[in-house]
């Protein structure tokens, strides 16, 4: 009798555990889920910078991660709970194959990763000072044009991989359409490094991300351009020069009113012995600037 009672107790426990496992398995089964476009973070870039090196390019900047675990745990996870890190401390100049370290919450496991390594190209770094040009967006009346009265800074330091820094010829301070009016106004402008074709050069750093531009709408005026030319050469070379006949300037109407012509600095062609293009430097009155329409 006693033995039967013990047997029934043990059997009941076994059945209870089995039913519990069955219920848990049915209500909270093991599941998998793929998280896409997890950003890859590159760390210890300062180690490269201390060796005058910089990352030119990487074969990937995002990856997919598949996790497995109970459905309740999987459902609690979002992309921000997953980190993918590449350590640049051991990278050297040239092409590097670097491991991606993926970290996930403790209650789930990594089932699969779209990539395990990333190819990183490293080259010498470079810095240079580049002038800032204001880029006014939008269309203006034919005889109106924005005039830059003041900028909080006129140049910026561009740094990064040498091949990319070499492409930067100017840094544009972009002023959005509608920001400039006939009232003097100070506008915060984002800076954009560009190449000779005006295309943005990415993956370089600027010592400042924005500047303040004080501007207003001004009038334009086209006047004769006087270009004094000096030739003290004693040779018998025949030299022909071609210069622009006019220049378009901009400023307040009151400042433009009495300007009848603009003169440039003297151009010395004494040492010129072959076809050459020379930059002209106009001598501008105070508060007068060259129009964007004048080359």
SSE layout and pairings?
Layout: H1 2-27, E1 30-43, H2 45-50, E2 53-58, E3 62-70, H3 71-75, E4 83-87, E5 94-99, E6 101-103, E7 109-113, E8 117-136, E9 144-151, E10 155-161, H4 162-165, E11 170-175, E12 185-194, E13 205-206, E14 210-226, E15 229-230, E16 246-251, H5 253-256, E17 262-264, E18 267-268, E19 282-283, E20 289-290
Parallel strand pairs: 1-4, 8-11, 14-17, 15-18
Antiparallel strand pairs: 1-3, 2-8, 3-7, 4-6, 5-8, 8-10, 9-14, 10-13, 11-12, 12-14, 14-16, 16-20, 17-19
Task: Briefly summarize what is shown.
The chain is α+β, with helices and mostly antiparallel strands. It has five helices and 20 strands. The strands form three sheets. Strands 2, 5, 8, 9, 10, 11, 12, 13, 14, 16, 17, 19 and 20 form a 13-stranded mixed beta sheet that branches. It has a five-stranded mixed beta sheet with strand order 6-4-1-3-7.
Can you describe this structure?
The structure is a single chain. Helices cover 15% and strands 46% of the residues. With 295 residues, the protein is α+β, with helices and mostly antiparallel strands. Strands 2, 5, 8, 9, 10, 11, 12, 13, 14, 16, 17, 19 and 20 form a 13-stranded mixed sheet that branches. A five-stranded mixed sheet has the order 6-4-1-3-7. The radius of gyration is 34 Å and the shape is elongated.
